[in-house]
Design brief:
This protein has 15 helices and twelve strands. By secondary structure, it is an alpha/beta fold. It folds into two domains: 79 residues, Arc Repressor Mutant, subunit A, CATH 1.10.10; 181 residues, 3-Layer(aba) Sandwich (Rossmann fold), CATH 3.40.50. A seven-stranded mixed beta sheet has the order 6-5-4-7-8-12-11, with helices on both faces. A three-stranded antiparallel beta sheet has the order 1-3-2. The protein has a two-stranded parallel ribbon with strand order 9-10. Helix 3 crosses helix 4, helix 6 crosses helix 10 and helix 10 runs parallel beside helix 11. The protein is globular. The model has no long low-confidence stretch (mean pLDDT 96). The protein binds S-adenosylmethionine (SAM). The site of S-adenosylmethionine has 17 residues, from helix 10.
C-alpha cells in the first residue's frame, strides 16, 4: 500500500493552480525579481505574493537566492510566454477554460456529455466555444502548439513517410505537425487544412513554409494528397462522425496512400497510462469524444475501408498510428 497516494492526489489541483496563477500573473516574464518588486508590478498583496513565489520555488519553477527569485531551466523553457517551446498558452487555457469545465465533472460522468452549457452557458458546435473570441482561439491553438513542439517530431519519425509527396494536415492548427514533416522530408510539400478563422494563425506560425487551405473537413472537398494527417482530431468526435471523416479521407487517397493519426493511445485494457486517461476525461468535459486503444483505432479505420494500421507509442504527448489504403 502507498500511504501517500491519496494525499498526493488531493494536492494535485493545488499544484496545477499555483502554476497557472504564476503564469497568469506573468512572474516568469520579469525574473530575476524580488517579492516586493513583483507585488508592486502585479498590483498584488505583498504577503500573498511572497507565498506564491515561495510555492513556485517548492514546485521547482523558481530558485531563490538572497531574496531574488529566478526561473529554473524548466520554467524558462516551458512557462515563459516568449520561449519558442512555451506551454503557457496551454496553462492559460487550462486555467480559464478547462478548470471551469472540470468543475462539472461529476455531472459530465452522470450525463455522459461535455459541460460547455453548464460552465459557460454556450450551446452549438464545440469549436464555436473554443474559438468564441480571437483571443480564446489564439490561447487554445498556441497552447496546442507548445504541446506539438514536444510531440510532432516524434510522431512524424514514428513511421516511414519517405515516399510521401504531399502531406495534408486536416485540422492542422498552427502547423507544428506539417513543419515537423517538412523538417524530416524537405523535398515534399505540406498543407494545413483548417477552419477559415484559424488560417491567419497558421500562416503566422508557419511563415510561408506550408500551404494553407480554409475549409470544413466534414462538409468541403479535401485537397488531394498521398498522406493525410489528423492530429488530436479523432478524439474530439463521436464514432459516427469519425467513421464519416475516415471514409472521406480513404476515398480521397490514391491507392497506396496513407493516413497518420496522432493521439494518445490507451493500454489494451483501457486503464492507463494515467496521462491518457486524464486526457480521455478531459475530452468528456469539452468534446464529443475520448481517447482510444490501438485496437479501437484499427477497428475504426478498417470500418472506413483502410487495409491495415500500425500503432507506435512515441513516449511524447501523442502516439502515432499509420493507416494504409
Ligand atoms: N491538429 C492540431 C494540433 O495537434 O495541435 C489542432 C488540434 S485541435 C484539438 C482541433 C483542430 O481541428 C483545430 O485546429 C480546429 O480548428 C480544427 N477543426 C475543428 N473542426 C474542423 C472542421 N470541421 N474542419 C476543419 N478543421 C476543423
Amino acid at each position: 500500500m502507498n500511504p501517500s497516494l491519496i494525499p498526493d492526489l488531493l494536492d494535485g489541483f493545488r499544484r496545477s493552480k499555483t502554476l497557472f496563477t504564476a503564469i497568469d500573473l506573468g512572474v516568469f516574464e520579469v525574473t530575476p525579481i524580488t517579492a516586493a518588486a513583483f507585488s508592486a508590478l502585479a498590483h498584488a498583496d505583498p504577503r500573498a505574493t511572497e507565498l506564491l513565489l515561495d510555492a513556485c520555488v517548492a514546485l521547482g519553477l523558481l530558485t531563490k537566492a538572497n531574496g531574488l527569485y529566478a526561473n529554473t531551466p524548466e520554467a524558462e523553457t516551458y512557462c515563459k510566454r516568449t520561449s519558442p517551446h512555451t506551454l503557457a498558452g496551454y496553462a492559460l487555457y487550462s486555467h480559464n477554460v478547462l478548470w471551469r469545465l472540470w468543475d462539472h465533472l461529476p455531472d459530465a460522468v452522470r450525463e455522459g456529455s461535455h459541460r460547455w452549457p453548464q460552465a459557460f452557458n454556450m450551446q452549438g458546435p464545440i469549436f464555436s466555444h473554443f474559438f468564441k473570441t480571437e483571443a480564446a482561439m489564439r490561447t487554445f491553438l498556441s497552447g496546442l502548439h507548445g504541446l506539438g513542439m514536444l510531440s510532432s517530431p516524434q510522431a512524424i519519425a514514428a513511421h516511414d513517410l519517405s515516399r510521401v509527396e504531399h502531406f495534408v494536415d486536416l485540422g492542422g492548427g498552427t502547423g507544428h505537425l506539417a513543419l515537423a514533416f517538412l523538417d524530416r522530408h524537405p523535398n515534399a510539400r505540406a498543407t494545413v487544412f483548417d477552419l477559415p478563422q484559424v488560417i491567419p494563425l497558421t500562416r503566422e506560425f508557419t511563415q510561408g513554409r506550408v500551404a494553407t487551405i480554409a475549409g470544413d473537413f466534414f462538409n468541403d472537398p479535401l485537397p488531394p494528397a498521398d498522406c493525410y494527417a489528423v492530429a488530436r482530431i479523432l478524439h474530439d468526435w463521436s464514432p459516427p462522425k469519425i467513421e464519416r471523416l475516415l471514409t472521406k479521407i480513404r476515398t480521397a487517397l490514391p491507392p497506396g496512400g496513407c493516413l497518420l493519426i496522432c493521439e494518445m493511445l490507451l493500454n489494451a485494457d483501457r486503464t492507463g497510462p494515467a496521462s491518457a486517461m486524464m486526457q480521455s476525461l478531459n475530452m468528456l468535459t469539452c468534446t464529443e469524444g475520448q481517447e482510444r486503444t490501438a485496437a479501437e483505432y484499427d477497428t475504426l479505420c478498417r470500418a472506413a475501408g483502410f487495409r491495415s494500421t500500425s500503432a507506435i507509442t512515441t513516449g511524447s504527448p501523442v502516439d502515432a498510428i499509420l493507416a494504409l489504403k
